[in-house]
Amino acid sequence: MDSKSPSKKESTDQVARESLIAISNTSPDKILDSNSVSESKKSDGGVLPNCDQDEQFRSELISISYSESPDVKIGSISMGV
User: Fold this and answer.
1) Cα–Cα distance between 25 and 19 in angstroms, integer?
2) What are phi and psi of 48, to 5 degrees?
3) Which residues pair with 39 in a beta bridge?
4) Which of 3, 21, 24, 42 suits a disulfide with 46, CB 3.0-4.6 Å?
């Protein structure tokens, strides 16, 4: 194998690196579809993001992070007093 030609793993790593850089360089307004973002209108014609939906997602993520893992079984520990 020629020392100048990159191995398959190196080329895969390079593609992954370039993809991550491209993702990080994109702005959110290019990614989000205007229909996917719920918004409520203000009386002056401006638009506010739907905070209730944000709060719902936040609560769901918190509940997932605090839920007990199905793999871990916690037995009762009796403390001798």
Assistant:
1) 10
2) -115, 145
3) 49
4) 42
